[in-house]
Give the backbone structure.
Amino acid sequence: MDHPSPTLAGLPADADAAAARDRPRDPRKAEFETNKLRKRLRRLAGQAIADYAMIAQGDRVMVCLSGGKDSYGLLDILLTLKDAAPVQFEVIAVNLDQKQPGFPADVLPRYLAARGVPFRVEEQDTYSVVKRLIPEGGTMCSLCSRLRRGVLYRVAGEIGATKIALGHHRDDVMATFFLNLFFGGKLKTMPPKLASDDGRNVVIRPLCYVRERDLARYADAMAFPIIPCTLCGSQEHLQRKQVTAMLRDWERRFPGRLDSIFSALATVTPSHLMDRRLFDFGAVRATGNAVADGDTAFDVDRALEDAIERAVLVPAGGEGNSAPIIPLLRD
Ligand code: SF4
């Protein structure tokens, strides 16, 4: 008969683990870990800002603050970067109060005032509009975000913002890529920087290199006063949920796969895809001169073969790891 293994404290192992979880953490260690995490978030955001020229001297950056963990993280990291950045820029937080029932309207103003951040709360009842237009049981998020975007663009003009910063992170970028691939027939995702659809604003995503789990840990450590986005009772799209679950499963079973996919998003070879708008296939001629990214015709791609071999030979994450990858890549 199985018995829980005894521990030094005389408690069964599972009770011991639960006790360890509940034990108050050493505050110095917790502070050290939070500082380390903050540095990582700052480094990744700073890198993304530099790589995509997101913020320039004299910019007035409007941070869209919903009250969720991602937008709190974005605001916090931009504020810390502002003090050390080689260029001067302003940060102003903007929240849209959509009049959802139960929205705690005092939470964000209190937080922002305490941190000394300039802010504006825009009140607009988009909630009733969405409720009126979407049939009972339908997903409201798409219309809700479109209405929200329109209001935020208008506010950006009114406050003289030169950039609009959104809190989308690396997991959002990846999930959107696969949603477009699976359901939209396009190779596209949320770009780090783009002109808004009304052509009047530049939208930036400084957290595009940051993992969601790090933002969740940071929000927890900083005790941000989170306001849930589901006050309206709507749910995330089923497809987005499924794609997110697929990515989490890959991350667990195939370490390195998501890094490879993320890196691929920034390493595109138009001549080796099939979009005639990006590459002039009609102009391809044999010139007799070597071409750097020319096709090696029937050669094996050594780098790719090596990467596949590494993934198969070093299975991490346990059961079912090596079996599916071979037919998937070689069929
Ligand atoms: S959960 Fe509600 S508030 Fe959030 S985007 Fe969807 S409809 Fe809008």
Observations:
- The two ends are 47 Å apart (CA to CA).
- The mean pLDDT is 86.
- Strands lie at 60-64, 90-97, 119-123, 163-165, 193-195, 202-204.
- The first helix runs from residue 13 to 22.
